[in-house]
Amino acid sequence: MHTGWIRLWRWTAWAGIGLSLYAGWLTADDIRDRASSERDIDAACGRLVSGADVMDLQGGMVRAKAAEDDRIDTHEPSGHCTVYKVPGPGESTSLFTLVVRSSDGSDPLHWIGDDMALDPFNTADDSGERDDVTAVADRLPEARPVGDGTLGWYGDWYTAVRAECGPGSSATAPKLLHVTARADYDDVSAADRQRLARIARSATETLTDRIGCRAHLPALPDERLAPVPSALGPARTADGSCRWFARHIHEQGQGSLPDRALAIPVLDTNPVEGCLLAVSPRQVGHIAGGLPEDKREWADGAVTHSPWWLRTRSYFGAEARAVGYEEDFRTEEQIKPGTAGHTRGGWWASSVCDGEPALHTLSSSYTYDNVLSARTLAALFRAYVDDITERRGCTHVTLPPAKDFRVS
Questions:
Q1: What count of other Cβ atoms lies within 10 Å of the Cβ of residue 310?
Q2: Strand, helix or coil at 237?
Q3: What is the pTM for the complete model shown?
Q4: Sign of torsion, CA 227 233 239 244?
């Protein structure tokens, strides 16, 4: 009996040692895999980000891989890298993207007009078309400023850091850089939102040093980046960057104008300020009753798959020199500060604020601008430009002529 217990104890001890060795082997294997993944991310993203920081997203992981075709050239201030999480053999899920863009690139950094890529609303969910598509800007809500806005802006799943290359910069450095760190998965946590902000700022700091861009990058704010609101509220009580619109409809009446709004805080240091306006199903029905027969079909789709919305946005300083639009679905045009005009679903005006150029824009969904009368649209844009230029102390305001507000 005694011998049997001794034998059992020995087998148990040997089994425990074996399991410990196996666990140690797995741990060492995981460490090697994680280190290899971090090196791959570092290389793919041009040594602009820490692979360890990227792999700490989504609660941390052991294995990840960078896309072979999406890699940043270490000597070019543009490009992007994409990283995938590897939960198991033969499996991968989207994780992270770093995007570097400069004002010297072929594409504008900001866009206006009725391009579908600018649509703030998802028009379908798992069950098909939605009954109230403009209730929540679940695709592109208004970005919030990071701190006072001079460092950049953020959404729930990304942070974009900006850098203006000032005096003393290399002759080859661009005037403006945007570096965006983006999570490519749903339900981004508050901790990951902070991590993305740190990754974006650190990448920008590394890049500016590397290319000889003399830029001042403010520190990240001490307080956590709050979640970005995406639900639209009543336009009549809108505040912040949409307060001008609430005042406009109070003075001029609702008419065929939007009845929903989504604003951001007003900060005179913010180089990009926007206001999103949209039409609810109830207001669509009200507007449709006054439309000619040939335009009522636009109202049928406005509730579900072709929402009616407007977006005002102003760009100041270096950002005003990096705005453009797509002409005739083919050619891209850069807007020159000091000008005013229109494009397909887009209007712009210019001014000078604190000695720097500014552009004030209005974009419209591709059917809504045909529903609004030219007089309504011109009065609305004028009210917006008057408000923001007065609030910011801007001068030399240039507005598009009334004939540019063409409505078919």
A1: 25
A2: helix
A3: 0.90
A4: positive
Three-state SS for 377? Answer: helix
Which of 263, 264, 265, 260 is closest to 233 using CA atoms? 260
- 8 Å CB contact between 397 and 350: yes
Rg (CA), the chain: 26
Handedness of CA 327, 332, 335, 336 (dihedral sign): negative
User: Which segment of 292-301, 305-314, 317-326, 385-394 scores lowest on mean pLDDT?
Assistant: 292-301
Q: Which amino acid is at 118?
A: L
- The DSSP call for residue 209 is H
Biggest alpha carbon–alpha carbon distance for the chain: 105
Q: pLDDT tens digits, residue range 193-236?
A: 999 999 999 999 999 999 999 999 999 999 999 999 999 999 99
Q: Which residues contact 75 (CB under 8 A, 6 or more apart)?
A: none
Q: How far apart are CA 49 and CA 200, in angstroms?
A: 8
**Which residues, listed in sequence order, are joined to residue 41 by a DSSP beta bridge?**
none
d(CA 278, CA 295): 18
Number of alpha helices (DSSP H) and beta strands (DSSP E) in the chain: 8, 20
